[in-house]
Every structure is written in structure tokens, then in C-alpha cells.
Amino acid sequence: MLPAHFTLYKEHHTYTLFRLELTPSLPALFLRPRKFSPPYPTFFFLHYYRGSKENLLPLAQEFAKNGFAALAIDMEYHGERRKEGRDLLSTDLKDDLLAFRRTLDSALLSLEFLETWEEIDKGAIYFLGVSLGAILGVTVCREYRRFQKAIFVVGGGNLETLIAESMLDSIVEIRYDLRRRGIPIREATQDFHDFEPLFSVRHLSSAPLLFLNATHDEIVPQGCTFDLYEAAPSPKKLSWFPAGHGLLFAPTFRISRRIVEFALEKNV
Asked: Residues 6 or more apart from 196 whose CB is under 8 A from it?
């Protein structure tokens, strides 16, 4: 049975999508497969920078036809949580850090909701993060040790290298602002230690990890991916694709299918 605060968002022959409010300031989307019975294995999804919880939609059919439910939230300053003049990646690093923390808190609250709902298979909750959602997601996985598996798409670690080399416009602005003020990048990233994927990944449990990355990515440098993969505990798998940062939605590589196949795989 659905909680009373669910409202219909979209109907499809393989799934039903609902909007809900986990709190008055935390909207979410819940994907429910139509041809399967609960309890459902479930993906918790964190979108990419400048995206929203609605980025779940291109994945919905693949998830639903394989019996997976999914819960997606907006990160701070994204989607329905957007605030004029505020950004999760800005030159106001103190506010950025607070926004990171609020995103983490929102993710943990969402996972707490999943654990208390009888339609969810508590032993089959999977993490899926894309780009910034993957980068922040490593820390979500550190704090929530009960994911069955975790999938990181075009993510990476080493925030110092990311700020020094990424060509994302917001990060370029941060880089030049630090240079203008004479602040070394290493010093600027020290306050973000708790969100450094290289730190967080070392504290993960034995849940299998999948890294899906793009060889032509100008947003997340390859060195960041290799650093994160090398720091991660086993079992783990890294796959490269000849694509750019938009790998998730490149039809040639069927990334949504690879995500589901990894989740269903018995022996990783």
C-alpha cells in the first residue's frame, strides 16, 4: 500500500511514477514496477550537476521491466530545491560545503524512509550516482553501509585534481577565483575532507562496486577515476567507454542495461 502523501506523476505500461514529499522541503520521485509484486529491489538515485530527480525517467523502463523500484531526490539547489543565485558548485565554498552536507542528510533521510516501508526489499537496496551524484555518493555509501551494491557513473575522486583540471564551467570559475585570491587548491579542499571520495571509499563495506567511465570526459579527469578505483576495496569493476561526460544517456553503450545486469549478477 502506498503512503497517503504519494501523488501520481506518470503512468507507463511497465511502471508507475509517484511524487512524494519526504519532508516539506525534500520532494522525491518513486518508481514502482507494474508487473512485479513487492517487496521490490530498489535503486537510490543521485542525479548529476544541474540535473534533477527527473533524470530518473530515462532509466525507468529498464529498471521496471526487471522488477526494480527506484527513489530519486533533488540535490541541494537543484530541481524543486533550486534557489535563485545559489549553486552547489560556486566560489562561495563555505556555502558549497553546507549544501554538500544538506544533500548528504537528505540522502540518509531518504534511505531511512526506504527501510521503513514494507514494499521495499531492505536487503536489496542499490546505490546509483551520476557525475556529482557519484562523487557525493561515495560519502553516502560510507555513511549508509547497507547498500547491496553501488554503481558510480562518470564519477571520480581526488577533489584537488578535480578542481585543478576539470573543464566544467563552475569548477573553472572556482579555480580562477582561488588563483585570484592566492589560495592554493589543496588548502581550499581541506574543509571538504569528509566529502573526499578517496577518504570515503576506504571506509566502504564489502558491497561490490561498479565504475562506468568515459575516455573522452573533460569534466571528470581520468586520473580522478583511476585514483578512486585504486583506493576502493574489492570486489570492484571499472569499465571504460569511448564517450564524453554524457555517457549515461549515450544509446550505443546501453548503460542502463549494464547497471541492471550488475545489480542482478549473483557472483561479482
From this structure: 157, 158, 159, 189
Residue 1 pLDDT > 60, yes or no?
no
243: which 3 cell numbers? 564517450
Written as nine digits, the cell of 144 is 549508509
| 3-state percent helix, strand, coil for the chain, nearest multiple of 5 | 45, 25, 35
Predicted confidence band of residue 5 (pLDDT cuts 50, 70, 90): confident
What does the alpha-carbon distance between residue 137 and residue 183 come to, in Å, rounded to a whole number?
27
Q: Report the C-alpha gap between 27 and 198 in whole angstroms.
A: 30
Between helices 255-264 and 57-65, what is the axis angle to 10°? 40
Strands 236-241 and 209-214, by their bridges, are parallel
101-113 in b/e burial notation, b at 16+ Cβ within 10 A?
ebbbebbeebbeb
Tell me how crowded residue 126 is: count the other CB atoms within 10 A of its CB: 22
161 φψ region: left (φ > 0), alpha (ψ -120 to 50), beta (else) = alpha
CATH topology of domain 43-61+75-82+90-264: Rossmann fold (3.40.50)
Task: Judge whether 82 and 76 are in contact, CB under 8 Å.
Answer: no
The tens digit of pLDDT for each residue in 70-127 reads 999 999 999 999 999 999 999 999 999 999 999 999 999 999 999 999 999 999 999 9
Reported as a single tens digit per residue, the pLDDT across 193-245 is 999 999 999 999 889 999 999 999 999 999 999 999 999 999 999 999 999 99
